[in-house]
Amino acid sequence: MQASETASETRPRRRLTKVGRVVSDKMDKTVVVSVDYLRRHPLYRKTIRRTSKFKAHDEHNRCKVGDLVLIEETRPLSKTKRWIVREILERAQEI
C-alpha cells in the first residue's frame, strides 16, 4: 500500500455540531450563539450549568435573536468565526 491509497481509504472526519440560542444578530452574516452544557464539580460533585458563546456564519441573515439553531464546526472563516449555522430548529416567539 502506498500513501496515496491510504489517504483515499480514510473516511472524512465527522463534524462537531452544537445546539444553542442566538443571543446577537447585529453583525452582517454572523450570529453569536450561546450553548449551555452541564459539568460536574470535581470536588463537590454538584452539577453546574456552564455557557459558551460561538460566532457562527449565517449567509442569508435568516437568524434572529432567540432562535434555536444547529451549528456545525468548519474551517476558520475569520479571526474568531469557526462555525456555520446548519439549520434553524425553532423560531423565536414574537411578542
From TrEMBL:
In its UniProt record, a GO molecular function of this protein is: rRNA binding
Q: Which PROSITE patterns match?
A: RIBOSOMAL_S17
Known Gene3D superfamilies for this protein? Nucleic acid-binding proteins
Gene Ontology cellular component terms for the protein in this record: cytosolic small ribosomal subunit
Which Gene Ontology BP terms does the record give? translation
**Which domain of life does this protein belong to?**
Bacteria
Keywords attached to this entry: Ribonucleoprotein, Ribosomal protein, RNA-binding, rRNA-binding
Pfam families per the UniProt record, alphabetical: Ribosomal_S17
Its family? Belongs to the universal ribosomal protein uS17 family.
Q: What does this protein do?
A: One of the primary rRNA binding proteins, it binds specifically to the 5'-end of 16S ribosomal RNA.
- HAMAP family, alphabetically? Ribosomal_uS17_B
Extract the PANTHER family matched here: 40S RIBOSOMAL PROTEIN S11 FAMILY MEMBER (PTHR10744), SMALL RIBOSOMAL SUBUNIT PROTEIN US17M (PTHR10744:SF1)
Q: How does it assemble?
A: Part of the 30S ribosomal subunit.
> Could you identify this protein by its name?
Small ribosomal subunit protein uS17
The record's gene field reads rpsQ
